Amino acid sequence: MFTPAVIRRTLALALPLLLSLPLGARETMSVAWSHWPPFSEIDADGTLGGLDVTLTRQILQDAGFHPVFRNLPWARALHLMKHQQLDVAMGALKTPEREQFARFSAPYRRASFVLLSQGAPQAGGDRWQGITKLSDLCGQTGLRLGKLRGTRPLPVSAQCPALGQASEYNSDDRLLTLLLARRLDGVIMEWQHARHRLIQLGANGFVQCQVLLHQQPVSLMFAKETISEGALARIDAAIAALPSPDPALATPHCRLDASQPSTAPAI
């Protein structure tokens, strides 16, 4: 009969061997990705890159898996995962609904959702000047706000009419176009994605962060039949060994901070 000490020594010897296996001997995992820079995108040299892709590739390989990336819209990826036809989804939030068909790794980064406005005041004055707390924002009736279709930007949206009544659009690029054209007073977006697109458009200096709405940890989501508890422990260990986040990914500076990480909503 093996004692716990013997089992631990055996595992300690086996893990380095597993990680040294050639790719052909490693278990393959299918990973969904879609174009969402700077997290997942085709680089200038034609290869798939981005922050989430790079981190996911490193985490899975360090845990002894070979990732194979599939270009899939998020809704399609969730559908396939529910039916155990996809192994991994990146940048996922852990929710009770998803836990019915998926397992989650430890968080590997944090996402910040913000309310952005035009940086320069309009001819009629700066309509954001009198908004000094969240209740001031919630009480606004004339703000034209936009958000990505299907997202819930703040846990208190139902009690915050200005946020709850934001118009929905099908793409973040459309939101930024309308904001820069002053057809919207504010847009609700994930900060790093918004910053990346604004830099590409040469418009980073024309937009101001008004409110940090919430921050949320994101994880790798696995189809339940794909991952064992032992494999998930290896993946969490690989996440724990990641280097410190790049300072460029720090929380944005906004005029107001309404973040409530303990009650972050799902997207």
Automatic annotation (TrEMBL):
Occurrences of domain Solute-binding protein family 3/N-terminal (ranges): 28-246
Keywords assigned by UniProt, alphabetized: Signal
SUPFAM superfamilies on file: Periplasmic binding protein-like II (SSF53850)
Protein's UniProt keywords contain Signal: yes
PANTHER family: L-CYSTINE-BINDING PROTEIN TCYJ, MEMBRANE-BOUND LYTIC MUREIN TRANSGLYCOSYLASE F
Family recorded in the similarity comment: Belongs to the bacterial solute-binding protein 3 family.
Protein name: ABC transporter substrate-binding protein
Organism: Aeromonas taiwanensis
